[in-house]
Design a protein that fits this description.
This protein is α+β, with helices and mostly antiparallel strands. The protein is built from 7 helices and 16 strands. A hairpin with a 4-residue loop joins strand 14 and strand 15. The longest helix has 30 residues.
Length: about 325
Amino acid sequence: MKKIDLVEKEKQREDTGFGTIATSTSARLVNNEGNFNVKKIGQSFEARVNLYHKLITMSWAKFAIFSLGFYLTVNLTFGIIYYIIGIENLMGIDKNHGLSEFWEAYFFSSQTLTTVGYGRVSPVGYITNITASVEAFIGLLSFSIMTGLLYGRFSRPVPRILYSEKALIAPYLDINGLMIRIANEKSNQLINVEVSLTFSRNELKDGLVKRAYYNLPLERSKVKFFAMSWTLVHPINDASVLYGETLASLAASDAEILLAFEATNDTFADPIYSRRSYLYNEIEVGKKFLPMTVPQEDYYLLDLNKLSDTIDAKLNA
């Protein structure tokens, strides 16, 4: 076998959008969470805050804390306003049940914000009525927005694609191959699945270090159904950009393998996307994956805990 020639090498070049100047030896291109490892400056306030995107994508725990915090803050603000205006402007205040005047104002604010309006306490005077009207409007607007956010969070397809902790260089047929194993953690059905691998490294060109990207052809890049695990295999033959590479050479060139996953979720018929990358120090040589699917009497058992389980394997010469 011989090294890949320059013409063939040019055919494998990929345009990932990161550009040739992404030559840092300490920053990866894609984080393990699938986010692009890029921070921006010079953004407008609206683009920097991007509140809707944050509210849609944050965890449910953070969303619940944010919602509760917003609700309590609004009630506290208007409770203070009512208290400053004067508790005498709230008709129906009963001082015999133990609540202080401030808490009477606070709970009146809560009833106004949610438009519950029990009727025992009511505003008196222009200032108090105007304040209550503004709060009622904010309440209606807030709950409308909250309904939209909840719908957006529930309807947004959130893939839970699991990736093996390491990429492996393992024996494949009479040669060797780069292997990565993936699985769908959710019970939903994914169809028309397609995966692509891109190899990225620093190269010296015209006396300058530039980032280069190469497509890694897979043994199989598409599957119709994604019901079990899938081991992605890139054959390392003399036509592969990985041919002749070692862990030392991969480290010297700050190599990174980018994985792009896309499929259709048949629950909502929505496309889903997922990303992962493997740095040179997340590649193991001379290993192969252990089986994670066990046939049962009337079904197949897929043990997700074994996704990254490997054993030693002798490479082909």
